[in-house]
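Input for the complex:
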Amino acid sequence: MEKRKNNRTKEQGAETKKQIYACAEKLFRADDYQNVSVEAITNMAGVTKGTFYVHFESKDALLLELMMAYVKRMDMQYNSFFEGLPDEMASADVILTVVDKIIELMTDQLGCQNMRAVYRMQLSSTVKMEVVKGYGRKMYKIFQEILERGVQRQEFITKLSPEVLARHFVMAIRGLTYEWCIRYPDFDFKQEASMHIGLLLDGIRVDKIYNLVIK
Amino acid sequence: MEKRKNNRTKEQGAETKKQIYACAEKLFRADDYQNVSVEAITNMAGVTKGTFYVHFESKDALLLELMMAYVKRMDMQYNSFFEGLPDEMASADVILTVVDKIIELMTDQLGCQNMRAVYRMQLSSTVKMEVVKGYGRKMYKIFQEILERGVQRQEFITKLSPEVLARHFVMAIRGLTYEWCIRYPDFDFKQEASMHIGLLLDGIRVDKIYNLVIK
Amino acid sequence: MEKRKNNRTKEQGAETKKQIYACAEKLFRADDYQNVSVEAITNMAGVTKGTFYVHFESKDALLLELMMAYVKRMDMQYNSFFEGLPDEMASADVILTVVDKIIELMTDQLGCQNMRAVYRMQLSSTVKMEVVKGYGRKMYKIFQEILERGVQRQEFITKLSPEVLARHFVMAIRGLTYEWCIRYPDFDFKQEASMHIGLLLDGIRVDKIYNLVIK
Amino acid sequence: MEKRKNNRTKEQGAETKKQIYACAEKLFRADDYQNVSVEAITNMAGVTKGTFYVHFESKDALLLELMMAYVKRMDMQYNSFFEGLPDEMASADVILTVVDKIIELMTDQLGCQNMRAVYRMQLSSTVKMEVVKGYGRKMYKIFQEILERGVQRQEFITKLSPEVLARHFVMAIRGLTYEWCIRYPDFDFKQEASMHIGLLLDGIRVDKIYNLVIK
DNA sequence: CATGAATGAGCCTTCATTCAT
DNA sequence: TATGAATGAAGGCTCATTCAT
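Predicted:
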């Protein structure tokens, strides 16, 4: 009898934590981390401030958990999306499609405010970078793979190694994301990214070069 | 006699303001805007809080002034450098040289920590965006001008307008700068920028394309 | 068991609020609203400033509650006294008796200093007028009712409507109260009020007029 | 030569003081004393804060001067107006006309905010009452005189002495003024005062009583 | 007489966090 | 697990007043 109670209590506890978690996410998406108070979160979650501290060590700890989850989730999603693409697809299209997906995920799942928080954290020397540092690692690997294949298939031509190129693509994505963060909502993330990555690709795409010369 | 007195008090006032200004800059460089209190600034400047409000309408107003000064200073320097370049220089080289100069200015005059502060500020929702939006305007104009000329001289070929292209070059610079800020000191800003901008140029440089095809 | 605990904490909270409330009242009685700081209140109440804001949204909100309580208490007491009066009593006497009672309540239950505080508050532009405006509403209704009945019973004769007349009686009471507040203790509130209201009644009392004419 | 200079300086000084004075008056009329800052006054007067303290010991001192001047001016104006009325005018009309004039003076020359300040001061035990206390003295004398004459001419009939009656009329005026202060701008001071004083007069006017009985 | 920079005490309010229950 | 009262440090800002010039 006691056990059952314990289980139920635990379940309820987990439920409550999830609730808080979800509300925090919603609020962080709408406003800056610093402007979202614990009270606002607990009010939305329908619990008291005390409860918050039962489940989270601090506001910072919550943010950390949140971001770790994001990074993990994003990375997994990039990857599974990438792996789902048909092998015969043109490498340039693969890159453009993946980029599109990445932006879609950021826009829909993270939201601008959250991304902003991540970027701000990276610029704050104080904050534990470890968590956030992992961010982009998967993206880098994917780009590298695609580029490598593209070169092998002679779709791409370049003097740079796939590793170096991949780094620059990731940098471009990061730069665009930064732009999105500071220009939101007056920035069409998807379109600008397509164009920008398109530009980078133009320099290495065999087909484009061929086309230009024919003309 | 009266004038001199007046001048002297005025001078002192300006001095104090500068002092506050300088301390604020130092502190904002080290920490986030929101975490720097007016009191911290005035303590460092050796004045009272009241004095702060003699010279600045609010904490926000100070930040605004600070950022405007940054933007203005940088913009002026880009420009005077650009105007000093010989007209007959190849457009691609002009771009690469200007980019080099921009990086040099940032590295030598502002420093990474300072730039970091600017970027952090831009990510703080507190700051009125209007001012920040002006940032890079000069850079943008310069790129636009070079690209336009390059197209006219048939050094560049592209389906995009010079305006759009310029925007993307500026974005690239910004992205690289962000990268520099978060990777410092493990990031060779100059080299990475040259390579990155080089990649972007590759897609529009007539000479490169020609070379590739010949081979 | 859980409930009792909850109740106890709640009780303590209510207790604290009351304590703050009482101290605020005391201080507002002694000095102007603007000159009483939240800190002064909390110091007196033996709590911290933070606690204040647990129980009251703002200093203004506290004042509002305070005033509403005053108004409500007084109004209830007027009313129950009035309703206890015999129906057959002469209307002029009813008015004079009610006025007597009103003065008695003010004198004995509120006290001059308190009334002073209320009047000072009403003169402070800070306070939201809506609440204050309600003040005297009950008194007004009572006067109106008596006057109406008096006219119907032909004890009173006047060209003015009971509503208008009632308003003027209320104003007279308020004026007298103000006088009491600033002249205390050199002002025989009860006597002066009787005389003053008597004068106002003289103009509408049929019996008085009749008497005068006979003579 | 020195003297002339001194004179000129003095003149200018007086001018400046007047200027500050006038601006303070304007601002106090528009807003509460506590909400009008020294800076606001000096800004409007086009002088610096330092100058303010050359001419006035403190903000309070300025208010005091202002009020003393008001009281004096008002009293003088009541009086000269009253003395200008034709001797043969009916006493009731004299009272009504004088009351009208009093209200006019308050409305046009003092303004509601100023009056409010006076009334608040009277309710503040701390403030030096001496100055404000004189307020109304002249008014009382005028009423007394009119009432006395009215009784002598058998226009008024009452069991009360002119002194006592006069006191009640003054109280009524004060009450109405208080009402004006707290109800402004939703209070038609002139009309309400006419009506109210009319009511008081009704009880002592021989003509009115006569009229009623005839009907 | 006039300036205006500087003061410093004070104000209201916020908020992450603790803790007894 | 959940509550909610209490904390206390901090924060941005105001303003009457002083004083050297």
